[in-house]
Amino acid sequence: MHTPDPKNRLNDLSSRQWLQFQKSWFVLDKNPVPEFIQFFTKATYEDGRTGHVALYTASLLHENRDELPANRKYISLENLNSNQVADYVYIDLTHIHSNDQLRGAKQKIDALIEWCARNLFERHYITIAARNIHSDNGSQLIAWEIAKWFSEFFLQKDEKIGCRVNSGEAHVEKADGWAPRNTVTYFLHFRKENNAQRKPNFSFPVPEAKETSPLKNEDYPFTDGWYIHRPPRREKGVLLHPAKFPEDLVERYIENFTHPGEWVLDPMAGTGSSLLAAAQCGCKAAGIELNPEFVDIAKSRFADGNSVKLITGDAAEAKSYAAFPQLDYAITSPPYWDMLRMRGSETQKKRKDAGLQRWYSDDPKDAGNIADYEQFVNLLADIYHHVALKLKPGGYLTVIVKNVKKKGVIYPLAWDIVAALKNDYIFCGEQFWCQDDQRLFPFGYRNAWVSNTFHHYCLTFRRRT
Ligand SMILES: C[S@@+](CC[C@H](N)C(=O)[O-])C[C@H]1O[C@@H](n2cnc3c(N)ncnc32)[C@H](O)[C@@H]1O
């Protein structure tokens, strides 16, 4: 039996066990609650107190009692009468499957929030398990909405994605367009602080009945809610670019959403991965890229320039799109805010040592150089608005992005993009590209949970008709 490390303020795990918890996604094939309790509590705290865990719903306590770690005191939050203090709160809201049910549960959730505000120790954690549901009634962004409510009172620290296999309700039957399967559960983490929080600024579209169209769901075979993708090693020429996405991943999307001969756009084309993928699928490619160096690399990757139109320019300006015909599909990945500018990232250190470029450019029009978060999200919304004007009505757009963590706070960039595009697009759903070929680092060791973010959101939208 491992002896608890007195310097470890968060739990009784060894550094190896800590590392195992660091990955931001996991295959959800067993009850995850015991592991969360082990990570977020100690059996005994410095003052001799036994770790107190509060659970909602009560079934977590009754049905799985044998699986829960011993040496903890458990509190049921079913009736919220308890005024005992808690070291950790786990709230399971996965039974909420629609916005109507969410509205019905609002009072209870408010009461749970109040209970945590009163009884949870400061700098201690809350985990919320919840799901978004994509169905014929539209995308019900339940998990994200609940996160918004909690983040009015607590600091949103991080998220873990539970990826289910063989789930009975996995397949969404839809007759009017694409939706991903509902195979992901969010585990959202909040911490109680002693001062005021950043207030959430996203506001999600209310789901609407999907617009009718002659398309059938079987036209879109790629509906996995999550998948593991291991890109091949990068060719030498494109190593120069700090963050390119793999061509074979983009091909899966292009095959799903286009037919050969159609036009595919990437408004932030980088070194041209999506343009190359489009050509590979027999499509014509259109691209815009601000940095002329990347444009040159992209152009050099095309043997035949006939099926590609690549513009050096700013994707936020209408004139950059003037040369394109009507487009059938767009796929793109923006800078993940100004994260490449943040010091201390291990990848950035390696790139510096190798003499490679660490950010996209010094151009003030480069979205990766905008420090103000709201201004950055608004710029992306502007760019995708220009894309919408060129996209055929009912055409799809896929945006690959991460929620970003900066200075210990999560900025839900993926969710904010969904909220910001609601006037131009209907949100169809999120898929997760999960990485399992990256080295893990024990960030936050002994003090706080900071995951290694190895899941990317692939958000698909449909242009409003
Ligand atoms: C995440 S990278 C895209 C990488 C690309 N998907 C690839 O695989 O090579 C984002 C790109 O957006 C470009 N960019 C940033 N701001 C831009 C703007 N306002 N207009 C056009 N491109 C921009 C950057 O130069 C960078 O190459």
Question: Overview of this structure, please?
Answer:
The chain is an alpha/beta fold and 465 residues long. The chain has two domains: 15-191, Rossmann fold, CATH 3.40.50; 238-421, Rossmann fold. Helix content is 24%, strand content 25%. It has eleven helices and 19 strands. It has helices at residues 15-20, 33-40, 59-62, 99-119, 142-150, 247-257, 273-280, 292-300, 346-353, 373-390, 413-420, and strands spanning 25-27, 51-56, 72-76, 86-92, 120-130, 133-135, 138-140, 155-163, 184-191, 226-228, 263-266, 284-289, 308-312, 327-332, 391-401, 404-406, 409-411, 425-434, 455-463. The strands form four sheets. It has an eight-stranded mixed beta sheet. Helix 3 (59-62) links the parallel strand 2 (51-56) and strand 3 (72-76). The protein is globular and about 70 Å long. It starts with 14 loop residues before the first helix and ends with a strand. S-adenosylmethionine (SAM) binds next to helix 7 and strand 12.
